[in-house]
Write a structure and sequence with these properties.
single chain, mainly beta, Immunoglobulin-like, four-stranded antiparallel sheet, 2 helices, signal
Length: 175
């Protein structure tokens, strides 16, 4: 089921997706994250959190509107084609690789698929039907493994499921 949204809300999402250095918060890291990636990094503890300090500056992804930044313990990406404020992030901690995503507003889904490529476990697509319809999280055991994730939201349909917004950009982390 789709929900109607107003033009004002769409405009607000488009403006909210813009990344500007003026939104930066200070830390002792040599590189300061900014925009939606910087906000997410701060909510996850900033330099003292699971991602640690940035290892590179934020970069645009070729042939997309997305942006990605690499950190000491993973990556955070803004993937606006799957929602104006859609963040997908991967990090490693205590022998596990974690992937988190959302919010996908204005889109909501019946379930999410997680595409996993790894040096440690069987590669494949995992389905996540529990949780919220606009965000989610998963973890995979993999000491010493490297993981790359992509996520997409899908809807159940009688003649075959539909995943209209496609896959997010990829993010990677070492477990």
């Amino acid at each position: 089921m789709r929900r109607a949204i107003t033009l004002g809300m769409v405009a607000a999402l488009a403006v909210a997706g813009a990344a500007t250095p003026a939104q930066a918060r200070t830390s002792s890291c040599a590189i300061q994250p900014y925009g939606l990636i910087g906000e997410y990094w701060q909510t996850m503890g900033g330099e003292g959190g699971v991602f640690g300090c940035p290892a590179s500056t934020e970069k645009g992804i070729a042939n997309s509107n997305a942006r990605r930044q690499t950190f000491a313990n993973g990556q955070i990406a803004w993937s606006p084609d799957q929602g104006g404020r859609m963040i997908v992030a991967a990090y490693g901690k205590d022998g596990r690789a974690y992937v988190r995503w959302g919010p996908s507003n204005p889109f909501n889904y019946d379930y999410f698929e997680i595409l996993v490529r790894s040096t440690h476990i069987a590669n494949g697509t995992y389905t996540r039907r529990d949780g919220l319809r606009v965000r989610g999280a998963a973890s995979f055991h993999g000491p010493g493994g490297h993981f790359t994730f992509r996520v997409r939201g899908c809807d159940d349909k009688p003649l075959g499921d539909v995943c209209r917004q496609g896959w997010t950009v990829s993010v990677s982390a070492d477990a």
